[in-house]
Amino acid sequence: MVLKLYLDYMSQPCRALDMFMKMSKIPFVVHPVALRKGEHRQDWFKKITPLRKVPVLQDDNFYLTESIAMVRYLAGSYPTEALYPKNLKLRAKIDEYLEWQHVNTRILSSKVFLIENLKIPLEPLETAVENMEKMLYQLETMFLKDKDFIAGDQLTVADIFAICELMQPTMSGRDIFEGHPKLREWFQRAKAATQPHFNEAHAVFNASAARVQNKL
Ligand SMILES: N[C@@H](CCC(=O)N[C@@H](CS)C(=O)NCC(=O)O)C(=O)O
């Protein structure tokens, strides 16, 4: 049976997985799970994952949650060398970012998105923006440094996860790279290196962003 990816294109790890699999030429089918319609809370999805979160990868009767675990699982059986190389030190640098991003890039950019767009009062927007700024500074100085991409001179899955997460706080038209010219250049470089998959994976997000920005 062909692999199945349960996803919602509004979700950052879902978009990253979709791009990673397509760029690695891994055959799979998409099973959409519309979060805004609450489909992830329906009984059929709860049977697949009690966590009720997307993405979920299905390989026959094997189900896997957690996007980074999926990257590692797929790397065991598919040609992912270009985006997730086996070289120990290179892979360790990619993993270093993938471990860091959960509670940094992801949480801190998501918070700005959730407060600004979904009006969820987690904390004052200024606090969330300040914390996102600190994260962007660390991303630039600890991970990117003077390299073209996070792990070196080639695009890897680390860049794919990073650019998908960093799209989320741009929903309102916010320019998150103001004062971060190096990050802006890297973002554009990574985006160009992942086309046409970046645009395809972000079509739903971009349509939603256009609606939000037209209302402003
Ligand atoms: N650490 C998980 C995060 C999964 C996650 O938080 N998914 C969100 C969408 S981005 C979700 O399904 N949220 C639904 C909910 O929490 O109700 C991964 O990397 O796969």
UniProtKB/TrEMBL annotation:
<feature type="domain" description="GST C-terminal">
    <location>
        <begin position="87"/>
        <end position="216"/>
    </location>
</feature>
<keyword id="KW-0808">Transferase</keyword>
<dbReference type="InterPro" id="IPR004046">
    <property type="entry name" value="GST_C"/>
</dbReference>
<protein>
    <submittedName>
        <fullName>Glutathione S-transferase theta-1-like</fullName>
    </submittedName>
</protein>
<dbReference type="InterPro" id="IPR040075">
    <property type="entry name" value="GST_N_Theta"/>
</dbReference>
<dbReference type="Pfam" id="PF00043">
    <property type="entry name" value="GST_C"/>
</dbReference>
<dbReference type="InterPro" id="IPR051369">
    <property type="entry name" value="GST_Theta"/>
</dbReference>
<dbReference type="Pfam" id="PF13409">
    <property type="entry name" value="GST_N_2"/>
</dbReference>
<keyword id="KW-0963">Cytoplasm</keyword>
<dbReference type="InterPro" id="IPR036249">
    <property type="entry name" value="Thioredoxin-like_sf"/>
</dbReference>
<dbReference type="GO" id="GO:0004364">
    <property type="term" value="F:glutathione transferase activity"/>
</dbReference>
<dbReference type="InterPro" id="IPR040079">
    <property type="entry name" value="Glutathione_S-Trfase"/>
</dbReference>
<dbReference type="InterPro" id="IPR040077">
    <property type="entry name" value="GST_C_Theta"/>
</dbReference>
<dbReference type="GO" id="GO:0006749">
    <property type="term" value="P:glutathione metabolic process"/>
</dbReference>
<dbReference type="InterPro" id="IPR036282">
    <property type="entry name" value="Glutathione-S-Trfase_C_sf"/>
</dbReference>
<dbReference type="InterPro" id="IPR010987">
    <property type="entry name" value="Glutathione-S-Trfase_C-like"/>
</dbReference>
<dbReference type="InterPro" id="IPR004045">
    <property type="entry name" value="Glutathione_S-Trfase_N"/>
</dbReference>
<dbReference type="GO" id="GO:0005737">
    <property type="term" value="C:cytoplasm"/>
</dbReference>
<comment type="similarity">
    <text>Belongs to the GST superfamily. Theta family.</text>
</comment>
<feature type="domain" description="GST N-terminal">
    <location>
        <begin position="1"/>
        <end position="82"/>
    </location>
</feature>
